[in-house]
Design a protein that fits this description.
globular
Amino acid sequence: GNSVGYIKMRQMWIAPHMEQPKTWSMLRVLDDDFTAPAEPDLAALSTTMQPHLARVDPTGRRLAVTGSERVVEVIDLDAGRQILITPPYREMVTDIAWAPDAQSLAIGYLNGYVRCHRLHHRPDGSCSLSGRATMFEAHTDIVHCVTFVDVDTIATTGKDGEIRLWKPFECNGRTPITSDLASPTFAEFSPDGTRLATIHNSSGKVALYDAKLGDRLVQHDLPLAIETCWGASGELLILRREGSNQLQTLNSDLTPASQLQTPHPIHGLVSSPVEDRFATVDQDELILYQSPTLAATDRPRRPDTSRRVAFSPDGASLAYGGV
């Protein structure tokens, strides 16, 4: 499967069920073996498609699923049934995003287009599309990522190397992230959505942008930078370099704060959403750190093949996996 999601308020993860192709299984997180069964009524959810991507809404009550059928199906997790299906489109869905208030849905497509829907949630739990969808060409090629910055603004990235901000429900609502730097190879919004950190591998630079206006605030030379993550406070960035054992923390103006040599090159890096802690995974172990001191606080057991790691929204659980 292409996604694993955490279901808010349920302490449960959702992942594809490999033996039953049209089913997404639920697992309650009680230990790092992921062996505890889910509640019986949520043990498995059947869909009308072969799913390859799923996104849980911010309330933890609804799941948007897509697959080869080129539609998005919305499932009510309380009732375990489909409550909405979007109109079909000629291209494959590449990404889905929920608005922070769960009232809108943005869908990215293989041909560079994005479609945004307003949703109407009824008291009986059913759901329908509200009004006419907004559809526009966001990129000249594949849409790689769609995400909401706030309830009215989305950000998109595409194969054309551009990052763009949009007000999809307003006329002429595009705000490109313009830059004289090379196309970014990595980008991440600050926790409050007001700033965007980008990495430009070809020029060896890291830049910080105003996410509302698209203006560049600051840039620094940081060769071989490959990934950053924000501390929960938004005042700190943690950076890793390609093939390197070095972790570095940066202040909000991208000036160096501290650095650390790790035992092995780092494969994955993620920060806690509720406190200034972050986790790394390398060839041998998963390590939790406290920032900005970079002091290691824990080394949970993990499978040998893990190369990705993720915190739950409340920061109390970690998931890791991948090959």
